[in-house]
Amino acid sequence: MAVVLVAAAAGLLWARRHLMLVSVVGRSMEPTLRPGDRVLARRVPLGEVRAGDVVVVVAPAAMTAGHPTPPGDGERGLLIKRAYAVPGDPVPVDRVPLLRQRPEREVPPGHLVVLGDNPPFSYDSRECGYIPERDVLGVVVRPRLREG
């Protein structure tokens, strides 16, 4: 019995360190994700993110009035977006005009470009530019876990 409890505790500890469950709020990722969907994300460094992955990032301070909510303090302050360009990819100035004023032609190391699947309802790199590596939390591995 004690072995089972220790194994269960170790499994829960591993899951908390490597996985996160995030609820979708808003329409920015429709039709891929809808409000009320829940997604399971695996915590990964930026180097493991690929263009096209759906990612969870900390919302830029400009969006949260300078007070982003750190991970672990609830889900406010998090964004779920699609990684559009990763370090080394060409800067997508056609999709993100804000980046035209930047001198680099490739996404610099330590940065990510994210876009919502539903542009009219999405706050993303079109408004805030690059997402820094420190704000990349994970990649969605299991979408659409419905609440309820």
Give the arrangement of secondary structure elements.
Elements: H1 2-18, E1 19-23, E2 37-43, E3 54-58, E4 78-85, E5 111-115, H2 125-128, E6 131-132, E7 136-146
Antiparallel strand pairs: 1-2, 2-7, 3-4, 3-7, 4-5, 5-6
Name a few traits of the molecule:
single chain; 148 residues; alpha+beta; seven-stranded antiparallel β-sheet; 2 helices; 7 strands; globular
Task: Give a structural overview.
This protein has about 150 residues and is an alpha+beta fold. It has two helices and seven strands; from the N terminus they run H-E-E-E-E-E-H-E-E. The longest helix has 17 residues.
Summarize the structure.
This protein is an alpha+beta fold.
- Which regions have little confidence, pLDDT < 50, spanning 5+ residues? 6-12, 66-76
Number of helices: 2
Give the strand content. Answer: 25-35%
Overall strand count? 7
Q: H/E series, N to C?
A: HEEEEEHEE
Spatial order of the strands forming the largest sheet: 1-2-7-3-4-5-6
Residue-averaged pLDDT, rounded? 84
Question: Which structural class is indicated by helix and strand composition?
Answer: alpha+beta
Amino- and carboxy-terminal Cα gap: 32 Å
What is the C-alpha radius of gyration, as a whole number of Å?
Answer: 17 Å
Q: How helix-rich are the residues, as a percent range?
A: 10-25%
Give the biggest beta sheet: 7 strands, antiparallel
Overall 3D shape: globular
